[in-house]
Amino acid sequence: MHMTKMKKIAGILLAGAIIPIFIGGCNSSSSTVDKGEGTKDVQGEVNTGEKKEDIVIAMSQSLTTFDPIGAGSSSLQDQMVYRQIYARLFATDENMQPVQELADSYEKVSDTEYKFTILQGAKFSDGSEITAQDVAYSLERAHQSEAFATLMSTVSTIEATGDYEITITTTGPSPALLQALAHPGASILPKAYVEEAQGGGDWNSPITSGRYTVDEHIVGVSTKVVKNENYFRPDDAAQNNSLTFLNVAEDSTRTILVQTGEADISSVFSTADYNVVESDEKVTLHEKAGTTIQYIGFDVTQEPFDNELVRQAVAYGLDREGIMSVATEGLGQVSYTVIPPSTLGHLDDNPGAYEYNIEKAKELLAEGGYENGFETTIVVFSDTGKTIATVAQGYLDQIGIKAKVEQYDTSVRMDMFANHQCPMFSAQWGALADAELVLPRLFTQGAAYNWSHYNNDEVNNLLQKARETEDSNERASIYAEAVAIIDKDAPWVPVYVPNAYALANANLQGVTLDGEGLMNLHALHY
């Protein structure tokens, strides 16, 4: 991981830019915040001389739900919380590869059978034992869910075959199974609690299995989790007492809060603030090559985007370099393909042969029956999405497409996509290392995150073919062929892969990033 050390810069921030922030009922409008443990300075110390044990994380949005397979649970910000409070059979390392967590051992019995043994004596946060029945129930729930069924598309059955043993049978070789089991959607919860929460519709007091348990949740404001004393791997327990996830939607405000010490780290850093923090010795900017695709998508079932020529026209009409230079100060990698370099099956070239070419874009529009252009809407659900859409708006205008930009809260995102209310949209997707966990979720009919409503029988057949072999080279070749078809069909116009950043107090230790952003929050400490 690359870390850029910052130096001090004076006169950049206006005092009036600090806004009141509420954490657990405490109001602070200055550069310090009292959390009942003394006043923290920007070095992570309190006035008692003790180290600060509550790590405040400035997030770009608030937690949607404590249900790890609930509506909205695909949000990277939600999943960051799930990874703290819920255990899985496997976690992931910095390279997004699976490592054992609740799984004590596992065995591939055959191409269609896997056995997993969980740690004996592992407990939930309420002190009850984690059993194979709880694990099998949680995994089967994910398997049957609309949101995560495609993660386990090769799974046939999930059964508790002993007090501490789970057997999973598959339709064939499943080389991505362990990675699927490491996804936050495969989080382990008590069966009894889930049944009660589902029955009453109340997920606000979850019984957890991870390193933390929930202390307080203020809807739209903050979520505080505290160290789970029952966590089953004491040698890898939390190195802090608690984490407070603070909802701070405005990009520059998150930066200011870290600079002033009111937050210890920002999980989403806007590169617009790069020069602002460049010389500030109080903070460190952590950076890693990204695995998230920023893209413009279309609902391919709706006119005029049911016309491939129109979608291809947009692909030629957008200057990816220009958009990235505005959205990230040029800090990232332009992309012409729907999966990032970190994912199996990535194509290094430009399979759709797209380049910024206004005349070509106009020709395709005319060929598609839209010589005079048309009007449309670009729907967004984040500030980054809005920035990208606004810049794209200018490029589209040059080829005759008049687009207005509308921003909505993420809580309505899934309903809007399901109801075909997003003719064009600006979005992002954090891609896992195996294409089996990416392409079927995004580009097969009926998949919850196929927001483009795209379907291509040739792609479907290739994805099935890739499931029938464990040879990584053969799988990579098959996925690359599928990606080339998708890129040509253009349900998305990939724009760029941003670098992953986290801005932290310079004295904060244990900061780790993967390609999607901040991870291993349990290791954060002063």
- Sequence of strands across the biggest β-sheet: 1-15-22-14-4-13-12-11
- Please mark out the parts with pLDDT under 50 across 5 or more consecutive residues, or reply none: 1-42
The overall pLDDT, averaged over residues, is: 88
Spatial extent as radius of gyration: 23 Å
Briefly note the structural class of the backbone.
alpha+beta
Helix amount: 25-40%
**Major sheet description:** 8 strands, mixed
Give the CA-based shape: globular
Total beta strand runs: 24
Please give the count of helices: 14
| Approximate strand percentage | 15-25%
Query: How far apart, in Å, are the first and last alpha carbons?
Result: 19 Å
Annotate the secondary structure layout.
Blueprint (H helix, E strand, L loop, with lengths): L1 E4 L15 E3 L2 E3 L25 E6 L16 H10 L4 E3 L5 E3 L2 E8 L2 E6 L13 H13 L10 E6 L4 E6 L6 H5 L9 H10 L11 E7 L3 E6 L14 E6 L3 H10 L4 E2 L7 H4 L5 E6 L3 E7 L9 H10 L2 H9 L3 E3 L23 H10 L6 E7 L2 H16 L2 E7 L5 H6 L5 E7 L8 H5 L13 H10 L5 H18 L2 E7 L1 E6 L6 E3 L2 E3 L7
Parallel strand pairs: 4-13, 4-14, 18-19, 18-20
Antiparallel strand pairs: 1-15, 2-3, 5-6, 7-8, 8-10, 9-10, 11-12, 12-13, 14-22, 15-22, 16-20, 16-21, 17-21, 23-24
